[in-house]
Amino acid sequence: MADQTASWQTVQYEGFEIHVSPVPKDPPDPAHAADAAAQNSRYTYLGYVCHPGANPQLPGHAVPFHADGEESFASVDDALYEAVHVGRSIVDGTHPDLTVLPLVTGGV
Description:
Blueprint: E1 9-13, E2 16-24, H1 33-38, E3 43-50, E4 62-66, H2 76-92, H3 101-105
Antiparallel strand pairs: 1-2, 2-3, 3-4
């Protein structure tokens, strides 16, 4: 579940943990490092919702989510803000596609 190179942050919300990580939209090519520094970076995010202490590597122990398609953000902070917002919508039951119901009914 968790990308080992990603920098994860955790937010406690309504008895769940929301784990989020900003990800560069187009990671710089090391061969063109000077060009990458001159470009404006864009970010996206990865995330998952789970119960505190759950192992997200186990099937059914987390609800993963990510930014849709071409969605990107101008800064790390913007990407993190949106990721937490999406995580909260999953917990609240207002996300159109994802829910924590399997976590609650599955007992994990």
